[in-house]
Amino acid sequence: MSELKEEYENDTVYEVAEQEFKKMGLLLDGNKIKVYVFDWTGNGLHHIGYIPADSVDAIMPYLADMDKYSFDLCGVITGGKCKTITKDPKTGKITVSKGKDGNYGVDLDVTIIPRKD
Asked: Which of 8, 25, 64, 101 suits a disulfide with 36, CB 3.0-4.6 Å?
């Protein structure tokens, strides 16, 4: 708790949010794009949701012809349980309050790279 107070003054710290997934994947499913995460062994594959409908049109042409492209996916956990550390400017007293910032989610960054091989 003392580390939280020192390092995250006037900030919010999430229990598991802001942690990055090791490996992710996309799979075309008709007019939808499924998002998958791999387990730490790299063998297990888990469907966690879909690319938002308003982003599908931008990615669809690349997935339809995916032999020509490489995909770099970075997924970061968002939301969930958190603690907010607040310092009173007058007294210097630091308080920690527990909260929940909505449901857990994933902020996904997709980089598409034309293949040269």
From this structure: 25
DSSP designation for 68:
G
Total Cβ atoms within 10 A of residue 54: 7
- In angstroms and rounded to an integer, the radius of gyration of the C-alpha atoms of the chain is 19
pTM: 0.69
The residue count for the chain:
117
The mean pLDDT value of the chain amounts to 85
Cα–Cα distance list, 100 to 20, 35, 49, 80, 104 (Å)? 20, 24, 21, 5, 10
Q: Give the model confidence (pLDDT) of 53-106 as tens digits.
A: 999 999 998 988 889 998 899 988 888 888 888 988 899 888 888 888 778 888
* CA 65 – CA 22 distance, rounded (Å): 25
